Amino acid sequence: MQKPLLVIGNKNYSSWSLRAWLMLKHAKVEFDELRIPLFVPGAKQKLLEISPAGMVPVYCEGELLVWDTLAIGEYLYETHHALWPADRAARARARSVSAEMHSGFVPLRKAMPMNIRALGRKVTSSAELEANIARIKTIWSELRKQYAAAGPWLFGQYSIADAMFAPVVFRFLTYGVSEHGAVDDYLLTVSRDPLIQPWLDASALEQEVIAASEVGRENKQ
Amino acid sequence: MQKPLLVIGNKNYSSWSLRAWLMLKHAKVEFDELRIPLFVPGAKQKLLEISPAGMVPVYCEGELLVWDTLAIGEYLYETHHALWPADRAARARARSVSAEMHSGFVPLRKAMPMNIRALGRKVTSSAELEANIARIKTIWSELRKQYAAAGPWLFGQYSIADAMFAPVVFRFLTYGVSEHGAVDDYLLTVSRDPLIQPWLDASALEQEVIAASEVGRENKQ
Could you tell me if B1 lies within 8 Å of chain A, comparing CB atoms? Predict the structure, then answer.
């Protein structure tokens, strides 16, 4: 049988691609990848030929197309019985924080684009950006406190919530956001996840540069 | 047993509140409402006392808080076995279009804020806005064509996808977006839904005016 296919963008820059890719890896799905470098002539057309929404990621399994990250996560939950907490109340909470990330944190996403291989950058702060960062630190810290005994992830075991926040981890590392304790511990948990290493390696090797995502000044210590 | 509580914003303006409220109504949940008028002094503080994300809607059932519209939908799907199509592939597609609405269509959401009681408005067009409108028309038309025999909603029977697009219906009515055929039929299906009528009546009676949502010039015919 043909493997499912995940269509993704640049590994260094495409935060939504990373989220879906991590969900598939953690659900132990064997899949092929099709990487379409974004923001170059013809990229949008190529994507539109695959998916009507014209965005990455797209999950293709036979005739089935699933073209949004959260929808891919729910599909994997149904088919692989993985990726959401087993307890219903915890699952509702995991879906709440995941959806909060899915539709929100716009100031953070604009000011701090994912740029995995860049380190030591600083961006200009703003009240909205600081509020986003504070809220994310609170989410992580509260969950890690509650689920510490169950494992190193937000809800103990790996869940879609961890995939949803993974790009934020790399934003924090790129732009120097940290906080001693649960926040820093979680940055390490995500960035040292053995399953993510091939993605990080590939990000470092990509040659394309997306100018709009190259923001921040070098952080001279 | 105490009824669940749905915390919402202004009925005339709060598109996310409308979505969650419709899901509850169509899932036949008996619930109480707490309306917190938005963008007035103290509103954010009131919300933060209820929910850590500080946003509407919030669904409260005993100790359980669910604070995002999609997460509320998935919770209702689990507890009431309603609101997503029964077929797995259709469900994946319904989740894809719902998530596309959840995280996207930003130009449309900015240029055409929901303002249910306003009619006959025109806003300045843009390529991004037109692309959003075209994509939504395509989603509705293709789904209505495919599921016409199964019922009047996007996937035949009512689903979360219909709740997700309901505010877009009222945007189209306010700012004069229409298209003969499936699009106009769907505008009528949603706006004449018997379950939505109390919300529309309440919108008309609300006294608060949110200036930022009062956009567009009067459309002189």
Answer: no
Task: Return the H-helix or E-strand segment holding A32.
Answer: strand A32-35
The answer to whether the Cβ–Cβ distance between B102 and A103 falls below 8 Å is yes
Looking at residue B16, its pLDDT comes to 98
- Alpha-carbon gap, residue A61 to A56, rounded angstroms: 15
Query: B68 and A96: CB-CB below 8 Å?
Result: yes
Residue A102 touches chain B, beta carbons under 8 Å? yes
ipTM: 0.95
CA nearest to B93 within chain A? A66
Helix (H) or strand (E) holding A59: strand A58-61
Q: How many CB atoms lie within 10 A of CB B43?
A: 16
B66 closest CB neighbour out of A92, A102, A135: A92
* Angle at which helices A88-103 and B69-80 cross, to 10°: 150
> How many whole angstroms separate alpha carbon B132 and alpha carbon B43?
31
- Report the 10 Å Cβ neighbour count for B184: 12
With 0.90 as the threshold, say if the pTM is over it: yes
Residue A219 CB contacts under 8 Å (≥ 6 apart), including other chains? A120, A121, A122, A176
